[in-house]
């Protein structure tokens, strides 16, 4: 009877920690730092992808893994000039489009939109990127792209991972070595 109480006391926190871990990992999807594959959370099948700055930085990729908006990507601004993205600051979702706040070489901080190209008859899954003014944006939830520092959510998820592992090893110890007594 004592052994069953110990198993329940170890298993219950492990189950709760596992559920918290899953929630944190799903939240980290929007930063491109998740371990589990979550499909079709963002519109247009866009996937966030985190890389360190020396690897090119954060990117929003299409379903095939090709970057749509990333560091050093170019787009044509409203003046008809080509502009280059230095850094992605944050992004938000509005209906079937994604708005990205970027830092560019020419203008400083600006906004670009990723939307499905409905005028292209040849390509079904083509996107266009265009510059937006701040007046055209009404997004309530923004996802801030992390710099090279470790976000607090990722730190908590990693600590919980270690606790789950230690708890699982302890549970196996109780089941196999204490069971014989």
Walk me through what this model shows.
With 181 residues, the chain is of the alpha+beta class. It is 29% helix and 29% strand. The protein is elongated. The strands form two sheets. Strands 4, 5, 6, 7, 8 and 9 form a six-stranded antiparallel sheet that branches. A hairpin with a 5-residue loop joins strand 2 (59-61) and strand 3 (67-70). Helix 1 (2-28) runs antiparallel to helix 2 (152-176). The chain has two helices and nine strands; from the N terminus they run H-E-E-E-E-E-E-E-E-E-H.
Provide the low-confidence segments as ranges: none
How many alpha or pi helices? 2
CA distance, first residue to last residue: 13 Å
Report the principal-axis shape: elongated
Task: List the main descriptive attributes of the protein structure presented here.
181 residues, alpha+beta, three-stranded antiparallel sheet, elongated
């Amino acid at each position: 009877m004592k052994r069953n109480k110990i198993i329940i006391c170890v298993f219950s926190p492990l189950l709760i920690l596992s559920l918290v871990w899953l929630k944190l990992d799903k939240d980290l999807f929007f930063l491109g730092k998740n371990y589990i594959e979550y499909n079709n959370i963002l519109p247009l099948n866009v996937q966030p992808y985190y890389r360190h700055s020396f690897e090119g930085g954060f990117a929003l990729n299409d379903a095939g893994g090709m970057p749509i908006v990333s560091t050093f990507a170019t787009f044509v601004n409203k003046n008809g000039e080509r502009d280059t993205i230095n850094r992605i600051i944050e992004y938000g979702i509005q209906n079937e489009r994604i708005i990205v706040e970027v830092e560019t070489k020419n203008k400083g901080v600006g906004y670009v939109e990723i939307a499905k190209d409905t005028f292209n008859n040849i390509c079904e899954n083509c996107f266009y990127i265009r510059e937006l003014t701040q007046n055209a944006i009404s997004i309530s939830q923004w996802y801030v792209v992390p710099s090279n520092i470790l976000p607090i959510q990722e730190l908590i998820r990693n600590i919980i991972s270690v606790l789950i592992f230690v708890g699982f090893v302890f549970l196996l110890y109780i089941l196999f070595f204490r069971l014989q007594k």
